[in-house]
Amino acid sequence: MSFESLxxxxxxxxxxxxxxxxxxxxxxxxxxxxxxxxxxIMGGAQTGTGKTAGFTLPLLQRLMSFDKTSGRRPIRALVxxxxxxxxxQVAESVRIYGxxxxxxxxxxxxxxxxxxxxMKLIKGVDILVATxxxxxxxxxxxxxxxxKVDILVLDEADRMLDMGFIHDIRxxxxxxxxxxxxxxxxxxxxxxxxxxxNKLLKSPALIExxxxxxxxxxxxxxxHPVDKSRKRELLSYLIGSKNWQQVLVFTRTKHGANxxxxxxxxxxxxxxxxxxxxxxxxxxxxxxxxxxxxxxxLVATDIAARGLDIDxxxxxxxxxxxxxxxxxVHRIGRTGRAGNDGEAMSLxxxxxxxxxxxxxxxxxxxxxxxxxxxxxxxxxxxxxPVNKGRGKQHNTRKSTRNKSTGNKAxxxxxxxxxxxNQGRRNLQGARQ
Length: 432
Hints:
This protein is an alpha/beta fold. It has three domains: 4-208, P-loop containing nucleotide triphosphate hydrolases (Rossmann fold); 219-363, P-loop containing nucleotide triphosphate hydrolases (Rossmann fold, 3-Layer(aba) Sandwich), CATH 3.40.50.300; 393-431, no CATH class. It has helices spanning 10-19, 26-36, 51-65, 84-97, 114-123, 132-140, 157-162, 166-173, 191-200, 231-241, 254-266, 280-292, 325-332, 353-363, 406-410, 420-431, and strands at residues 41-44, 77-80, 105-108, 127-130, 151-154, 181-186, 205-208, 219-225, 247-250, 271-274, 297-300, 315-318, 342-348. The strands form two sheets. A seven-stranded parallel β-sheet has the order 3-4-2-5-6-1-7, sandwiched between helices. The chain has a six-stranded parallel β-sheet with strand order 8-13-12-9-11-10, sandwiched between helices. Helix 2 (26-36) runs parallel beside helix 3 and helix 13 packs across helix 14. The radius of gyration is 22 Å and the shape is globular.
């Protein structure tokens, strides 16, 4: 099947061709015709399946087919995402696929000044990509009007709920017209997601292209047992001996990410850290340098587990296993995308064996182990409780709604790598 057979406009087909794609992915084949027909969707798709293009292409075509109002452009499509990185990625897809169409789009998220965003919104846009908190900042400052939205997309809805955005989402939904097309995408279908979908969607088409919590077959997974004190040494050894040029490494905490990147740089391996305490500018620069090859290793917390779109990323390393098993699936989903092969390695110490079992139970298979010569674990070391990163970083969220500067207004939304239940509790408290 080709993109031409899906009924897309010539301008969209041209943009797809210029992007280098010729054959749609399974979710694109299923979703595009349904969205073009105006039906609501409940989509289950893992990262790296082509989901973003799967809703962006038909969304653009649908907007072109609607009657256009004269005067200032109203927002006719709203895409909500959980993180800044994912918002930026979706906005870039809208720009790339819509570049031959007379549609305007913009993206709003926290961590950057709110005023340039307001100027773009005041001029009028057809498509708005946003994180929930920053969107409500604009609502409070009367720089957005959502009463003309024809299409709503909730991307990675499970992650938004996990991060405590349910109250924000409810506030936003109350500002939208009742008659609209709604597209909900989620990697998992929890009871909370189903409850939201039942209230929001009207006779939705259910589209699932991968078993829930499944890992991509194109990703080779391996566990390297090692003592905690030798993890950094082993990581440097693997990068150097195997000549890895682009490696995404995950840690549990922001402090751990900073410390590891500093240690790698001392080892002669150029590395940068990306996490919620970094400014948006620093995060954007670090990601750009990583994509361009200036930075060899990007050390990230789980804020980067979703939304980072890195072409043909070959290696993902779990320097520390995540506290929540589902995050393992999202982390390693950064590699092996769009049919490319990838490697996911986990450096596991004795403290993390329970976390490993939780992951294997979730993905329903055992991950092969490989002890690296010279890095054999010391059998005399006993397991200690895992530091789950709870502490000062979870008390930094402070409500700054109605502040005039975007940096302050968004600072509390940067802490997106907190443990999920803890984060939900704090976020809900801040909203009520």
